[in-house]
Amino acid sequence: MYAKIKSTVFIDALKFELVAGAHACLKAVLKDDKGSICSTLETNLPGEQKELTWRGLNDLPYGVYTLELSEGEDNLKMRLVKRI
């Protein structure tokens, strides 16, 4: 696994802990419970960076979301809850 989410509940930001790999290009897609893409993040990370905060999610309505992370061949899906 190349990243861990600090908490599965968020309000306005998601914090990732990067745990392995080169961290060259991290892509994150946040989808609502109907499968529609609500927000995306794609960033190039230096190898020494250990944490990443995805800000600007406060405009999303509260509910259940699916986070899809990908870095090269590695993929991760996880369910998250947005609170107000």
Q: Overall mean pLDDT score?
A: 86
Helix content: under 10%
How many helices? The count is: 0
How far do the termini sit from each other?
Answer: 29 Å
How many β-strand runs? Answer: 8
What portion of the residues fall into strands of 2 or more residues? over 45%
Helix/strand/pairing category: mainly beta
Task: From the alpha carbons, calculate the radius of gyration and give it in angstroms.
Answer: 12 Å
Q: Largest sheet at a glance?
A: 5 strands, mixed
> Which descriptor suits the 3D outline?
globular
Which residues sit in consecutive blocks of at least 5 with pLDDT less than 50?
A: none
Q: Biggest sheet, strands in spatial order?
A: 2-8-7-4-5
The H-and-E topology, N to C, reads as EEEEEEEE
Give the SSE layout.
Layout (H helix, E strand, L loop, with lengths): L2 E3 L3 E2 L2 E6 L6 E8 L4 E8 L6 E5 L7 E9 L2 E9 L2
Parallel strand pairs: 2-8
Antiparallel strand pairs: 1-3, 3-6, 4-5, 4-7, 7-8
Summarize the structure in words.
There is one protein chain. By secondary structure, the chain is mainly β. The protein is 0% helix and 60% strand. The protein contains no helices and eight strands. The strands form two sheets. It has a five-stranded mixed beta sheet, with no helix packed on it. A three-stranded antiparallel beta sheet has the order 1-3-6, with no helix packed on it.
